[in-house]
Amino acid sequence: MNQPTPPYVPRIRDPATPIIVAIDGPAAAGKSSTARWVAERLGFYHIDSGALYRAATAAVLRARSAQPWDEADVLSAAQRVSARDERRSFVLLVDGVDLEQEMRGGLVTQHVSRVAQMPGVRDWVNGQVRALATGRSVVVDGRDIGTVVFPDAHLKIFLIADPWERARRRLIQRLGRAPGDQAIAEETERLVQRDARDSTQTVQSKDAVLIDTTYLTQEEQVERIVALVKVLKADKSGTRPDEAGL
Ligand code: DC
Questions:
Q1: Using alpha carbons only, how large is the chain's radius of gyration in Å?
Q2: What ligand 1 atom has the least distance to the C-alpha of 148?
Q3: DSSP class of residue 149?
């Protein structure tokens, strides 16, 4: 049987070259928090592409006569979204107002998968992400960053975790305490359904480094990715992560 080829991490020759790190994976695999932390550690910007889908959804839900299932309405509402640069991250605004709470709420979560299926909306988000990334080193998280948005990203990570563990982490984050098995089981069911809705766009690039975080702490995940970026910047031509002992 053929052994899979280890992911190749290209060397960055010019230290001034902006570096793009793509982190993809299913819902609640810890992409955004890991991406934010990795960006902080490296002094890079963090871009959360899912937040742009959420902002467009929040904008269309706020517009009185607009329908969230109508692509033209969503695209028109998306024109009211803007990004404010804040400490190497971007706060998304709708009509100049920070709607972070609303964007993470149940109503937006209910509609966003459908909005994210619309080709025009995907083009709009991809354009926004590329514009925000221009000229800077970034860690971008989403579903299709390594395949569609930045197929030439210097480092691609695909984060996965067991659905039960993802559900458990999400509940701890939401409730601030350890959840019971029944609650975890119900959340697992919701996550699996969401995975199915988002499955077409959640794609692991062939050259992505797969990290299963089920048994890793957040520090360990962040450490691995930071170590891979350091290999990328190291002065060793053609170093593979396995040769570097990572
Ligand atoms: O990661 P999240 O839950 O904030 O993402 C919100 C929605 O956007 C979810 O339905 C998946 C979708 N999404 C996408 O299709 N492509 C991306 N690059 C990021 C998110």
A1: 18
A2: 18
A3: I
- Please give the tally of structural domains in the chain: 1
Instruction: Tell me phi and psi for residue 75, to 5 degrees.
Output: -65, -35
**How many Cα atoms occupy the beta-carbon half-sphere of 132 within 13 Å?**
27
For 48-94, the DSSP string reads EHHHHHHHHHHHHHHSTT--TT-HHHHHHHHTTEEEEEETTEEEEEE
Evaluate whether residue 13 is within a structural domain.
no
What is d(CA 201, CA 174) in angstroms, rounded to the nearest whole number?
Answer: 26
Q: Is residue 8 part of a domain?
A: no
Whether 82 lines ligand 1, by a CB cut-off of 6 Å, is no
CATH number of the structural domain spanning residue 103: 3.40.50.300
Is residue 237's pLDDT more than 50?
no
Residue 65 domain-assigned (yes or no)? yes
152 alpha carbon to ligand 1 midpoint, in Å? Answer: 20
pLDDT of residue 7: 54
pLDDT tens, position by position, 114-154: 999 999 999 999 999 999 999 999 999 999 999 999 999 99
In short, whether 54's Cβ falls inside 6 Å of ligand 1 is yes
Domain of 188, in residue numbers? 20-230
Q: Which of 137, 152, 141 is nearest to 8 (CA)?
A: 152
Per-residue tokens: 132 = 């925000």
